[in-house]
Design a protein that fits this description.
Layout: H1 2-21, H2 27-50, H3 60-84, H4 90-97, H5 100-112, H6 118-136, E1 147-148, E2 151-152, H7 153-176, H8 182-204, H9 215-240, H10 246-251, H11 255-267, H12 274-294
């Protein structure tokens, strides 16, 4: 279980580092370059470790799922996250991202007929209600995007990213149980998703993609985020799906906003409010209720 907590520490650092990175680069361009480099490196690791094993034979349906994996788990998730970071604090972005367990449950039920009990539903409801005050708060940098009710466009984009990452990891679980290696799957999906990001950046982002005189900073941020998220965290996440359900791994993500807010206060001077502690306690309670049922499962 320690590895699951370590996984979310790695994810939390990305929100903070990303805040610095988007000051010297366009967010979607940065994401595209990072994903392509990470995909090539990930597949290179796969080739070194498994070069004596025949290249996995993918059916047409498998390629279709890989394209969906690249679209949801790479392009929509990361492009949406880094675009929203321009307008939201690292802590609030992390809290919205943390809604993914609710989407994971829905996708797991509809795609894999994963069991749902009353306690699981109660745990999810408690967690969701506890996150709502953070969604409605105005802490952090000024959100200048248009608003629809109490949600801004930046918050709506982050909600889409949360749903996309949930669907992406449920799809990844499908491949893991077909005995494809995490490095192989990430190598292909990260490269395809990175290309989608670059097409988006070319079509919609202003030039220059990197701030003049900031190439060295850009490369540093890109490389450290690529190593932490795409090489270590993504492959660790895929590996953990061998032992735990996608729903459990996603639900433990409640610790990620806690870590993000603390690091945001330390490195970005973001405020820690009483609302943060109340919401965190509520999400932790939801996790406890949910985990009582998860303990009864026999993990594959």
């Amino acid at each position: 279980m320690f590895l699951v907590f370590f996984l979310y520490f790695l994810y939390a650092t990305i929100f903070v580092i990303g805040k610095f990175a988007i000051q010297v680069s366009q967010p979607i361009f940065l994401t595209g370059i990072r994903m392509i480099c990470a995909g090539i490196l990930s597949y290179g690791i796969h080739w070194v470790w498994y070069k004596d094993i025949e290249f996995p034979k993918l059916h047409r349906a498998d390629w279709g799922v890989i394209v969906l994996l690249a679209l949801f788990n790479v392009y929509i998730t990361n492009a949406g996250e880094f675009w929203s970071l321009q307008y939201l604090s690292a802590g609030k972005t992390s809290f919205i991202y943390n809604i993914s367990p609710f989407f994971v449950l829905l996708f797991s039920v509809f795609l894999f007929a994963e069991s749902v009990t009353v306690k699981k539903i109660i745990g999810m409801v408690i967690g969701f209600i506890s996150l709502m005050p953070m969604l409605m708060g105005q802490e952090g940098p000024a959100d200048t995007t248009a608003r629809f009710g109490f949600l801004s466009v930046a918050e709506l984009i982050m909600l889409c990213s949360s749903a996309a990452t949930a669907l992406g990891w449920v799809l990844m679980r499908h491949f893991i149980h077909k005995n494809f290696t995490p490095y192989f799957l990430n190598g292909i999906s990260l490269t395809l998703g990175g290309l989608m990001c670059l097409l988006h950046a070319y079509a919609f982002e202003p030039r220059p993609f990197v701030l003049a005189g900031s190439i060295q900073e850009f490369l540093w941020y890109m490389l450290i985020m690529m190593f932490i998220q795409n090489i270590v965290a993504y492959n660790l996440h895929a590996h953990l799906l061998h032992s735990y359900t996608a729903t459990l791994i996603a639900l433990i993500s409640f610790i990620m906003p806690l870590m993000t807010v603390v690091m945001g206060a330390m490195f970005l001077s973001e405020q820690i409010t009483a609302k943060f502690f109340i919401c965190s306690a509520g999400v932790a309670l939801g996790l406890f209720v949910f985990y009582q049922e998860e303990l009864k499962l026999k993990y594959l």
